[in-house]
Amino acid sequence: MSRLAERPMIGLALRMLLSIVCAGVCFAAWLAVTLTWARGGPPAVRAAGWITAPIATGLGWAVGVWIGEGLTGARATSFLRLLIWPLVGCAIGAAVAYPFGPMLIVFGMFIGGYASVFLRELARRARRGRTV
What we know:
single chain
């Protein structure tokens, strides 16, 4: 058992920090590809680019938690089961922020992704009988 697994708050903070970093990297990569690829393209291509934003960002959140679980010795879930939480959070965040303008979607995705990953961690702790 990892020493970080013995300190749940440090492990939680590490998983959340890694998630934020990985989500930022994935969003930046998505943005670079989308701006290069979809610039001046047909509307369907631009729409596909915006629709894939929550998927790319959710993938980053999930990768961060997955790496964090491996480092802290807390890995108990498969990657696909882990991926559902941030995908839903990012999709909801994007949907809520879209009426305010497409450029604000990133804030909605990061707030939704953070909230979903944090809620997942709380649910995981509750199943194991731990408190935060």
